[in-house]
Amino acid sequence: MQTALNPQSTPRAIPSTPSQQQRDTAGSPAGQNLAHYQIIRRNGAVVPFEPNKIAIAMMKAFLAVHGTQGAASASVRETVDTLTQGVIRALVRSRPGGGTFHIEDVQDQVELGLMRGGHHEIARAYVLYRERRTQERSKQGEQEVPAAPALHVLDKGELVALDLNELKSLIESACEGLGDSITAAPIVAETMRNLYDGVPLDEVYKASILAARTLIEKDPDYTFATARLLLHTIFKEIIGREVLPAERATAYADYFPQFIKKGVDNDLLDEKLLQYDLPRLGAALKPERDNQFDYLGLQTLYDRYFLHVRKTRIELPQAFFMRVAMGLSLNEIDREARAIEFYEVLSSFDFMSSTPTLFNAGTLRSQLSSCYLTTVPDDLDGIYESIKENALLSKFAGGLGNDWTRVRALGSHIKGTNGESQGVVPFLKVVNDTAVAVNQGGKRKGAVCTYLETWHLDIEEFLELRKNTGDDRRRTHDMNTANWIPDLFMRRVMEKGTWTLFSPSNVPDLHDLFGAEFEKAYVAYEEKAARGEIKPSRTIQATDLWRKMLTMLFETGHPWITFKDACNVRSPQQHAGVVHSSNLCTEITLNTSDTETAVCNLGSVNLLQHLKDGKVDQEKLKKTVSTAMRMLDNVIDINYYAVKKARDSNLRHRPVGLGLMGFQDALYELRIPYASQEAVQFADESMEAICYHAYWASTELAKERGKYSSYKGSLWDKGVLPIDSLDLLEKQRGGYVEVDRSATLDWDALRSKIKADGMRNSNCVAIAPTATISNIIGVDASIEPCFGNLSVKSNLSGEFTVINHYLVRDLKRLGLWDDVMVMDLKHFDGSLRPIDRVPQDVKALYATAFEIETTWLVEAAARRQKWIDQAQSLNIYMAGASGKKLDDTYKLAWLRGLKTTYYLRTQSATHAEKSTVQSGRLNAVSSGNGEATSSSGMSALEAAAAAAKAQMSAIPATDIAFCGVDDPTCEACQ
């Protein structure tokens, strides 16, 4: 940034921040690596990267808005220091191995950092200042992008002339076949702008990738050109030479056996992979499928999934899919044929295994499972054994769901010491800190969710665990929480009755009871408490507790609302135990006990790939689901188990969780708005098809491999399918179940087949968030509505512009796609609603999450839930949240038979990240009309600050981050 890199313009009032005084370049976030970074100034000069100048520029912006007295403020200095470190981290993340940043790119990151930090007024001032400086330079005849002189590149230690024709040819080949609007010229021009004499050749290729990605907001198909340029560098890194597209089939076939051997030699891959017919598998690879990737997908694979030896990648995209397929075929009779079958569904993007499976299949430590569920006993040994179990499971990237309902409440008597219990909350603080500690230096933290039943005496303190105020020793800021709500409580809320809280040490059987049996025992305990026979206990109004639940959910996003009885009454495995909680992402509903830790292995069908003639392609879906269920069943036997109880449980019951993603994409393809009865009907029919084929595939596996051990006595064994179990739920509740029961497929045939062959898996279907794997294949996550038609996704690789290519296609057809539309989409957070020239039917089709009434989300979820034997990760998006709206939404979820809900997202707690315009201005920030001039005696920055103050309007708050959409570092589920 010109201001940041102009020390002579620094005002006297700006002191160095304390950390600046203590830290030199080598001590900054990237450590000594900052010495490998340089800045390209506007005149083309290359200078060292000096992070302290970023801090100086930020401090100037703060002082311009808040006055020079801010210079003496420790809080301002600390804020500037924190923001500076964030900017540096973002820059370094975009070029992990070192490189150059154009001055404009640094300024872009400063703007983004200010906006993300909530300093909107400062950001506006900074944008206006940049605009003013641009105009001043223009008037002075300064040349923003000078004509580049003849450039030389450093290739293998030798300085040679840059072959511009070769560079153009590379970029043209990346644009080939993407349509007339995708051209090489702007990529070449932007690439040249970022080069300097003596630049390393690798930096030239990186510059071309960065140049192409800036154009994605102009036309989403540039994402494929960017991915192809990235693919070129990946091939060069792994093969060791330039590989033309026409050569890739041969290159893949030659490379693949060498890759497997190299992986085994470096203790990355299981040596059993060497026993495969590697030439046959290498010949089966389809290099043309590399062109399916968009930029975000391929960069995600490169940064986080591909195997590497001493930070050099050794895995190409199609080899990656084949490695996973081989890892899942190890126990098959015809391993090669099955590996090719599994490879086909993965590489075609028809189905994708969960992140742990993609990470670890075929490796020495094949931890392939996503979810673990445990129940914690009410004794000190058991409690700390459970915490140890959490640590061991977290170590290998498992997402955890803990049931803490059995632990006695605050004030309960402890026989061993004749003292009183401190309750469940202090132990949850230990769980929280353990989750953070075990994952330090890992890929994520806090992958735990604790569940507590609503009758627990500590429930009110439990509700406040995520608050930012109060005694921090009784807060768990890094851990998720969820309410495990019995139907009786919901009926008391509906009927405005009272509710009694107990310590589980006084009512030990309630934990294992559900439905009518729970109600009978609970009412009896209430009568005893009324007579003073049970202490401690407390009676409150059910609606008061319900109101507090919703208030905390609104304020903190926790605890989530999940329903105990719907999970248990409809569980196929109720004969073998009790579902005491769900998992980290609320889609798994499996039994837990002192001897069994529940485990679930996940994967998801890409619904978009299974449409034909305006409806679900049943034939293709059946084939994909059959293969997917086989892959998931194989995971159970191949998996590494960190805890014996997990292994015993998984082998006995063999549950899996087949889900879906791309639901929103399928609606776009079918021209169905999410907020419509047609979408609800499609949710119903598509889920029915997936479940039908999943259950059918499990019976086929049972016929081939045998039933799961605990099959006898299950609902499957009794001929009761998930759709039938709705009747059981309604009977137990005494009503209060209002769900459509229609069906389109031959479920009687399935019942007959299950009766004849049994089931291979106790549970088959669960809809996980799919945040990362949906990025890999380029569709919207899970069952989520579109969050924004133009937005920025952040992950370990930096920021990625994501634009709705379906929308762009329609706007092009209408002649409405232009630079003004891009700017409007940015200004309105990716929403079409305020843009007058867009037709209403287009606005309806491309409505974003907060423009869809929550009722539609719940109704669609209810239609899915009637078919699913587990549950679904259902986020609730709510614009204009109110107490009544929250109350209506969650009561509707209960009445519609939903088993669980996930995060509540309210518009007041959301700020969609913005993209940047071509000139580098953060488009979330108004740049004004350019007509204001500096007052006499005011600096340009001070004048900009004054203009920004005048333009200030309501500032949105920051996001409540949640699994799936906003947490790209979380691999707990998918």
UniProtKB/TrEMBL annotation:
Residues 37-137, 151-240 form the ATP-cone domain. Residues 1-30 are annotated as: Disordered. Signal peptide: none annotated. It is an enzyme of class 1 (oxidoreductase). It catalyses: a 2'-deoxyribonucleoside 5'-diphosphate + [thioredoxin]-disulfide + H2O = a ribonucleoside 5'-diphosphate + [thioredoxin]-dithiol. Pfam families: ATP-cone, Ribonuc_red_lgC, Ribonuc_red_lgN. It comes from the Bacteria. Residues 1-25 have a biased composition (Polar residues). Its EC number is 1.17.4.1. The keyword DNA damage does not apply. InterPro entries: ATP-cone_dom (IPR005144), NrdE_NrdA_C (IPR013346), RNR_lg_C (IPR000788), RNR_lsu_N (IPR013509), RNR_R1-su_N (IPR008926), Rrm1 (IPR039718). GO terms for cellular component: ribonucleoside-diphosphate reductase complex. Keywords: Allosteric enzyme, ATP-binding, Deoxyribonucleotide synthesis, Nucleotide-binding, Oxidoreductase. The keyword Oxidoreductase applies. GO terms for molecular function: ATP binding; ribonucleoside-diphosphate reductase activity, thioredoxin disulfide as acceptor. GO terms for biological process: deoxyribonucleotide biosynthetic process. Provides the precursors necessary for DNA synthesis. Catalyzes the biosynthesis of deoxyribonucleotides from the corresponding ribonucleotides. Belongs to the ribonucleoside diphosphate reductase large chain family. This is Ribonucleoside-diphosphate reductase. It comes from Variovorax guangxiensis.
